[in-house]
Design goal:
Layout (H helix, E strand, L loop, with lengths): L8 H31 L2 H18 L2 E3 L5 E3 L15 E5 L2 E6 L1 H12 L11 H8 L9 E7 L2 E6 L4 H23 L2 H18 L2 H18 L7 H5 L2 E5 L7 H21 L3 H9 L9 H6 L1 E5 L9 H14 L1
Antiparallel strand pairs: 1-2, 3-4, 5-6, 7-8
Helix pairs in contact: 1-7, 2-6, 3-5, 7-9, 9-10
Length: 327
């Protein structure tokens, strides 16, 4: 009679890790050394980034470090006083930016370049005060806002510390809204979409590479082994049999690979290996140690050295008859 011993959990995990690393390791090696450098249009990608940078520079709403990183000036929540909105020292990527005037940048953006970022027109100073700063309303707490000889002055309704901080937050929100209008402007959006397409088109070539190496290591090599063993399973002396305990039919191995490819590898790839982890977590909670692709193909993984199995039920019946006669 059959004697089935499930493959040890840790052996199965390490065997799968070995197979997994071989497939993905060789896939990434081939992709990043040969395919990526010859298919990705880095010149176009860099040119688009430069154009996006020019849009950010033109708005004057962003700080730019020597590393080429951009950050909205209004993103610094260390700004807590009204005076900070007129002059503050900021730091980006370890670089110091002295006497940054957020108010000046905001006025310049709305009153001089607003229409070039997909908006209808530049705002007059009075319209800016009313529509952006909402002067004279409790929402902003700004009673009046003036520019005299290049100097910016906020006059507040309530000068308490809490009310002043509320006004600072209001102005920073105005600033971030302006910065977002640049980040999501038609031109910047177009350039970002073009770069995303360039990257996606190149990364999509990784899928057939992964499928190809999986075909070799997860199907072709097991097809040439009676127990459907991959390299990892050979190392840890595991084999695949049917869920009923008989020798594996090759067609089941093909079904097993296809379901593994779709549900574990490809779906796992787009879910950051979430599907892969779910599948192998199932192995812990069922008596036969079966994962999703085992259920689909009707297979299970067992210990090769301690398992006694037959090619089919007829062979098992004949064996049992012989044993019965001897006994």
């Amino acid at each position: 009679m059959k004697h089935i011993v499930n493959g040890n959990l840790w052996k199965r995990l390490f065997a799968k890790i070995i197979d997994f690393l071989m497939v993905f390791g060789l896939s990434f090696l081939l992709f990043f050394t040969l395919i990526y450098p010859n298919t990705f249009d880095e010149t176009k990608y860099t040119s688009n980034l430069d154009k996006i940078g020019e849009e950010y520079d033109r708005s004057q709403l962003f700080l730019k470090s020597s590393k080429g990183n951009y950050t909205s000036k209004g993103a610094f929540r260390a700004i807590v006083k009204i005076d900070d909105l007129i002059s503050i020292d900021l730091s980006l990527d370890g670089e110091e930016f002295k006497d940054v005037n957020l108010t000046e940048s905001l006025v310049y953006f709305y009153c001089d370049v607003y229409n070039t970022f997909g908006n209808e027109k530049n705002l007059s100073f009075d319209v800016f005060k009313n529509q952006v700063f909402k002067v004279g309303t409790s929402e902003s707490n700004i009673k009046d806002f003036k520019i005299e000889n290049g100097n910016y002055t906020y006059v507040l309704e309530d000068t308490s510390k809490d009310a002043e901080y509320k006004t600072v937050l209001f102005v920073l929100d105005c600033y971030l809204e302006a910065a977002n209008s640049v980040t999501y402007s038609p031109e910047v959006s177009r350039l970002n979409e073009e770069n995303n397409a360039l990257m996606l088109n190149t990364l999509s070539l990784l899928i057939p590479v992964i499928v190809g190496f999986s075909l070799i290591f997860d199907l072709i090599i097991p097809l040439f082994n009676e127990g459907g063993q991959s390299i990892g399973k050979m190392i840890f002396k595991l084999e695949i049999i049917t869920k009923d305990g008989y020798v594996l039919n090759k067609w089941r191995l093909i079904v097993r690979w296809i379901s593994y490819l779709i549900l574990d590898l490809l779906l796992g790839f787009v879910t950051f290996f979430g599907a892969f982890l779910i599948s192998y977590t199932m192995m812990v909670f069922n008596k036969r140690g079966m994962v999703i692709h085992d259920y689909i193909s009707g297979t299970r993984v067992v210990d090769k050295e301690t398992t006694i199995r037959f090619r089919n039920a007829e062979e098992e019946r004949k064996f049992n008859e012989r044993v019965g006669v001897i006994q």
